[in-house]
Design brief:
Jelly Rolls, alpha+beta, four-stranded mixed beta sheet
């Protein structure tokens, strides 16, 4: 009985915008978001006060675009299709370590300039949008304007398969440090989705960060962004890396302030001992998150 009701409810959720909004309103998601937003806004300035916010990411107001070599793309693509079906976690070993060394060589300076010497890697994972039919509707909150509400946190997207028709849309801020007016604007653009209402209206100041084969894009998720996955039915395959300062992780660990930051099950990964010789990579590792498993190690949440 309960299973049947749940199935009916889920079908209505997909087909009826009114029912979708009612479900979100009844669940008080908008209230939870508002309370969390206020708490985070109060503490985030202090938590991020030591960030230098310098370099190319700061100059571009929150993002950076570069590219990787054809060899890097070839290696990432081969590893994904050979290993992903049997092992969904990223595994860095002698077959692909040169590709990751290249990636970290490109992003090392921009990330440290922006977040400081204390920045650490949170995780690495595959971020793939499968090829879809024209009738398929991608229904996900990421297609609505949002920030991740965890303050300064950088995501790196390295595309090894894609034609640029599934971009990330990004609203450039006026300044890296947000004013009260900026925070109010962000709140009202975000809270709409927590009423179950889509908010993906084009905004004049938005730019397209195009993910196409060999592109490397760094994005600060504290600024408004959204996916544009409805623009294309083609496949987009990427490796995603996340970076932040671990000092603030405990604030987002539990309770009303719990947020999507740090190392979690979805971005844990494995690496072989050969990686220890790659300083570009290993310097971003938090030793507290490494579990030795013989000839390989696992990078995982440990607190």
């Amino acid at each position: 009985m309960i299973g049947s009701l749940r199935k009916v409810s889920n079908n209505l959720y997909k087909k009826s915008k009114i029912y979708k909004s009612l479900r979100w309103i009844i669940s008080l998601r908008f209230f939870h978001f508002t309370f969390r937003f206020l708490i985070a806004s109060f503490f985030l300035d202090k938590l991020d006060s030591h960030n230098p916010y310098k370099g190319i990411i700061s100059k571009n107001l929150g993002f950076y675009i570069s590219s990787v070599s054809k060899d890097c793309v070839k290696t990432l693509k081969r590893n994904y299709y050979e290993n992903y079906e049997s092992q969904c976690k990223v595994n860095i070993d002698k077959t692909n370590i040169s590709a990751f060394d290249e990636i970290f060589g490109i992003i090392k300076k921009p990330i440290i300039d922006y977040l400081g010497a204390g920045v650490k890697l949170d995780g690495i994972y595959y971020f793939v949008s499968k090829k879809k039919s024209k009738k398929d509707i991608y229904d996900n909150v990421s297609v609505n304007w949002h920030t991740d509400n965890v303050g300064a946190r950088l995501k790196v997207f390295v595309c090894f398969e894609g034609d640029g028709t599934k971009p990330t849309l990004f609203i450039k801020p006026r300044n890296i440090t947000k004013s009260l007016k900026d925070k109010i604007k962000i709140y009202f653009l975000e809270v709409i989705r927590w009423f179950g209402i889509d908010n993906n209206t084009p905004i004049n100041s938005q730019i397209e960060l195009r993910h196409k084969e060999s592109s490397l894009i760094i994005l600060d998720t504290q600024f408004l962004h959204r996916g544009a996955l409805k623009k294309s039915i083609s496949q987009r395959s990427m490796i995603a890396l996340e970076f932040s300062n671990p000092e603030k992780h405990r604030f987002f660990e539990k309770g009303i302030s719990k947020g999507p930051i740090g190392t979690v099950a979805s971005n844990e990964f494995y690496f072989s001992n050969e990686l220890l010789d790659c300083k570009n990579i290993y310097q971003f590792f938090d030793q507290k998150r490494i579990s030795k498993l013989g000839k390989i190690s696992k990078y995982e949440k440990k607190f």
